Amino acid sequence: MRPWLPDDAAALVAAFDDPAIRQWHVSRADTEDEARELITRWRRGWAAESEFNWAIVGADDTLLGRIALKGVDLFDAAAEVAYWTCAASRGRGLCTRAVLALSAWAFTDAGFHRLQLHHSTRNVASCRVATKAGFRDEGTRRGAALHVDGFHDMHAHARLRSDTALLADLG
């Protein structure tokens, strides 16, 4: 994982061209200019301490996905985890490993108390990532998020720094 760079714009446009990413995520970048604007906004989030975004890249710096902490609340030490992976990177546990790495950083280095995530009840793969990364099911929020095909019910998951399995999972 590394910070997003302006040079990632072309790869970001290609990622957002994936129908699966378009289905589950609201953000879009149809041109390299739009991608650079999005990357600039993500980088501003770091400066404002309101949102932390990383590019997930391979050893050759090829874009594999995105992971982020959104809605950062430093007073309550809480944030929401968001993620996606490029089509060629799916099915290898990459997203789960990234969520575990981000959780380790958030809980041990950044001092967060609670991380939460939400995904459409129709997004089975995202639910597997949340569960494998130790995020407990907290229920369903009905009609809570607008996707390209209408409003979806959203599963809510969360993980606390004090969760007993934390050290074993993040070790």
Automatic annotation (TrEMBL):
Pfam families referenced in this protein's UniProt entry, alphabetically: Acetyltransf_3 (PF13302)
InterPro entries xref list: Acyl_CoA_acyltransferase (IPR016181), GNAT_dom (IPR000182), Ribosomal_N-acetyltransferase (IPR051908)
Gene3D superfamilies noted in UniProt: 3.40.630.30
Molecular function as annotated in GO: protein N-terminal-serine acetyltransferase activity; protein-N-terminal-alanine acetyltransferase activity
N-acetyltransferase domain location: 1-155
A Gene Ontology cellular-component term: cytoplasm
Domain of life: Bacteria
PANTHER family, per the entry: ACETYLTRANSFERASE (PTHR43441:SF10), RIBOSOMAL-PROTEIN-SERINE ACETYLTRANSFERASE (PTHR43441)
Protein name: GNAT family N-acetyltransferase
Native species: Mycobacterium yunnanensis
